[in-house]
Amino acid sequence: MSRSAGIHHITAIAGEPKRHVRFYRDILGLRLVKRTVNFDDPSTWHLYYGDENGSPGTALTFFVWEELPSGRHGSGEPQEIAFAVPAPALEFWRKQLSDHGISHKDAPARFGEQVIAFADADGHKLELVGSDAAARIPGWSNGDIPAEHAIRGFHGITLEVSNPATTARVLTEIFGFEPVGINGDRHRFVSKGAEIGTIVDLRVTPGAVRASQGTGTVHHVAFRASGDEQEMELRKRVIELGLRPTEQVSRHYFRSVYFREPNGILFEIATDDPGFAVDEPKEKLGDRIMLPPWYEQHRQQIVAALPALE
Fold first, then answer.
1. Residue-level pLDDT at 193
2. What is the DSSP code string of 123-160?
3. Which domains does the chain have, with CATH numbers?
């Protein structure tokens, strides 16, 4: 059985765009690798952040809806987005967050790793995790965050669920994740296919209300497929597990299949290819607004309607 190499990207919902860009690009030091629109709603931004290339396992994307009400955290939701940094970099990040007035705390050590917990202004739950794997990956500097301290990509994602056994079946039987242990209320599953974006924690909080989507919540989690062949193999497993995947959809930078796992969380299968350099060179990623070919004829109207980012 082929295995997914782990998380491809995570997509969340943001509010005020200028504040949002400043936080993720300027304070966290992620590269804004793509300025485009929501392909299903071209009146709104879809922004992609990541490492220098926006590599699978590093891509954090946002639908930016200024007028959307805040969501509610609860069961049936991807919650904490965890970034991987070398363990010695955590002291740098404590100072960086403090210097920018961002409240943070040291969470209890988890599976032997140190964790800093904080949130953005929209309410997204974020973590920085000191990771041995991160220390083996070269960092990219935006000019403000030194490369040795830079975020390398995702450490993983925590899914808040009411029935962890059913989500565990999806992780193991479709994507090939392996259970590696329990730490407190967390059940950890790991993909062995990469160094980054390999961890999914399942957590049950007794009495948790049902989550509702809105600003400050995660929209979906995408898992990696090496290409079309593996994507179709994974899609077949989704069907065999009694779930209902979509047909393949072109997202220009990857090709996608979507389905909801039994606890109601939206999962995506996304191909590693072609990547974000398909329509602009690596050194220019994120410099201008890129539209898929089917929207180019409406570029003037679409761009005029988008709110300013800076």
1. 85
2. --EEEEEE-HHHHTS-----SSS-GGGS--EEEEEEEE
3. 7-305 (3.10.180.10)
